[in-house]
Design a protein that fits this description.
Rossmann fold; globular; alpha/beta; two-stranded antiparallel sheet; 28 helices
């Protein structure tokens, strides 16, 4: 009964507790300092692990020394504790075993990224350190340009801008971001712009290991901005032990307007301002982007990337903006894309933009060749994969289209547009559970997305979940009281609480016009036929499909997406009707589902 207290008293007398506490404090401070200094001096990733392990090993050694040696007025002397020695060494052995076990098994695990391949990276939006919110576009633009440089390396998988920039302002751990984006490496940094000077700090993090691989600060004149982007891309390539593709070397300058000959800084500034206006596909922002890019290419006619981005913006404007001269926009988009390619034949965006024009004018064979070229130049170009998927679908290649869409989603896992493409793909194929799972995931990413609420509403109408459909439609419509009244009347008719005939007429005439302007165009092809089918009006649903097919570029807000949207319509066996197939042919599309679905 006295042995334990005797050991405790002996530990206290020999100052073992004091030494242990002091050691732990000093070791903790040393580890914190090392975690900051090691990356600064570019120490290898294993160095910090070895240092931490040494701190653990030193702890029991310090306790043993405190037990064995006593420091007093007579100097240092060795003590012997008899049976106490055996108990103490047994205790030390247990402490050492526990420490070793904790180090290897008990630490909070850094969950590995989804894709542990070292050759995968996300570029997070660089932090604006300029003290002026107006410069936010500049730091975002620098991040995107570095992303574009890296994406041109065929060995490297690069997460798309839409997804990596979705984490802007979020306080998430780097491993969590990497896991969600399916990458292992993460590049982050900051930008300080003052007058004609810029300071860019960048650091590369291995999310699986939790360590900084590389960091650098660049102080340059603003006119050297392209050279900085190229330096950063090359430094990362070196760290990842990649070999730069030969095509990326000249493209680094020519894509940005030839830094060697001195690009117009104001033109580059206009170009950067436009980049943040494209991802949301809002027709008002698209108009602003087009105006900025037109000014940029006027000031810098050899600015290839600005020409390519203008071509993309004009294509999107033709798809999403109401009351616009579609044919004129497409001609301008084609001209800008061809200028970009002439200036820089290695620019993937130019071929992608030209392919989009071909898709929207029913030239799918040409479009696919252009998208193949774009993807060959930039395998991480998620938009090109998406556009290729749409062209494949419009030409009847259903399975290949889904495969391409999934590649796009892997590269850009937070893109609402890619989610929409896959949601309608699944719904048209009758895979409603898969379609709903994607729609619910999309709603988690953006709870206020009108297109997602329409997608869920259509799925609810198919499943006869009338109340849920009613709720989603209300969240998608415009603020006009007449819109709410129409949706309420539809719900009442579905529930059998009101006469159906006037509601059917109102739905056929008005439902497609009541949604918010930013609604995804695919949704509008689906919602009215789905509502009419839910009301039991198969004939009226067919008439609605035929009405869509009869529209021209000059009268249809849906523009070039009509071909893809019609073959993606979630209309069940209605697509087996000869009139539906005739409508598909009328828009120069091929229904790749009819052969299989209509034989089930």
């Amino acid at each position: 009964m006295t042995s334990a207290p005797g050991l405790f008293a002996e530990l206290k007398r020999r100052s073992v507790f004091k030494v242990g506490a002091a050691y732990l404090v000093v070791a903790w401070l040393a580890i914190q300092a090392a975690s900051i200094l090691f990356p600064t001096f570019e120490a290898p990733v294993w160095a910090l692990r070895v240092f931490v392990l040494a701190m653990f090993i030193g702890f029991p050694i310090a306790l043993v020394m405190a037990w064995v040696f006593e420091v007093g007025g007579g100097g240092v002397r060795v003590e012997s504790g008899g049976h106490s020695d055996l108990k103490f060494y047994g205790l030390i052995g247990a402490i050492a075993a526990l420490a070793f076990g904790w180090y290897h098994f008990g630490q909070p695990a850094v969950r590995p990224a989804v894709d542990a391949d070292q050759r995968s990276i996300a570029v997070l939006p660089f932090v604006n350190m300029s003290g002026d919110a107006e410069n936010e576009y500049f730091s975002d633009g620098i991040s995107e340009e570095i992303l574009n440089q890296l994406a041109r390396m065929p060995e490297l998988k690069v997460a798309a801008r839409t997804s990596s920039f979705a984490f802007k302002g979020e306080k998430k751990e780097i491993p969590d971001i990497a896991r969600e984006l399916g990458v292992r490496m993460v590049l982050e940094g900051s930008v300080r712009k003052q007058g004609g000077k810029v300071r860019i700090t960048a650091q590369l993090i291995d999310a699986a290991e939790g360590f900084h691989l590389w960091s650098e600060t660049y102080d340059r004149d603003l006119k050297d901005i392209f050279a900085i982007q190229d330096e950063i891309a090359r430094a990362i390539a070196k760290q990842l032990q990649l070999k730069l593709a030969m095509s990326t070397v000249p493209a680094a300058s020519s894509a940005s307007g030839d830094a060697a000959s001195g690009v117009d800084v104001e033109a580059y500034d206009l170009y950067l301002r436009s980049l943040g206006l494209l991802p949301r596909r809002d027709f008002r922002e698209l108009g602003e982007a087009v105006a900025l890019l037109e000014r940029a290419v006027t000031k810098a006619p050899t600015f290839a990337r600005a020409h390519a981005t203008l071509a993309i913006a004009l294509n999107l404007q033709a798809l999403y903006a109401p009351d616009m001269p579609v044919r004129e926009l497409r001609e301008r988009a084609s001209d800008s894309a061809q200028r970009a390619i002439a200036l820089d034949p290695t620019l993937a965006e130019g071929y992608g933009a030209l392919g989009l024009v071909a898709t929207n004018t029913a030239r799918d064979a040409t479009a696919l060749l252009l998208f193949d070229r774009s993807i060959a130049l930039n395998p991480s170009f998620a938009a090109a994969h998406t556009w290729r998927a749409l062209s494949l679908r419009a030409s009847g290649q259903w399975v290949e289209s889904e495969r391409e869409s999934r590649i796009a989603l892997e590269l850009d896992p937070r893109s609402l547009n890619i989610y929409s493409n896959l949601i309608w793909h699944m719904a048209a194929d009758g895979r409603y559970a898969e379609s709903r799972a994607l729609a619910e995931r999309k709603l988690e990413l953006e709870p206020t997305s009108p297109s997602t609420h329409i997608e869920l509403a259509v799925l609810d109408l198919i499943a006869k979940r009338n109340q849920d459909a009613h709720g989603h439609l209300l969240k998608a419509i415009s603020d006009d009281p007449r819109s709410r009244s129409l949706v309420d009347d539809l719900y009442a008719a579905l529930e059998g609480r009101t006469a159906k005939a006037p509601v059917v007429a109102a739905v056929a005439a008005q439902l497609r016009f009541v949604f918010r302007p930013e609604t995804n165009p695919y949704s509008l092809v689906n919602v009215t036929p789905a509502a009419l089918l839910a009301l039991g009006e198969r004939e009226r649903a067919l008439e609605e499909v035929e009405r869509f097919a009869a529209q021209t570029d000059d009268t249809l807000r849906l523009r070039g997406v009509l071909r893809v949207a019609l073959v993606s319509a979630a209309v069940g066996d209605l697509r087996c009707e000869p009139r539906f197939q005739a409508a598909v042919r009328r828009v120069d599309a091929v229904d790749g589902l009819a052969t299989t679905l209509c034989q089930r």
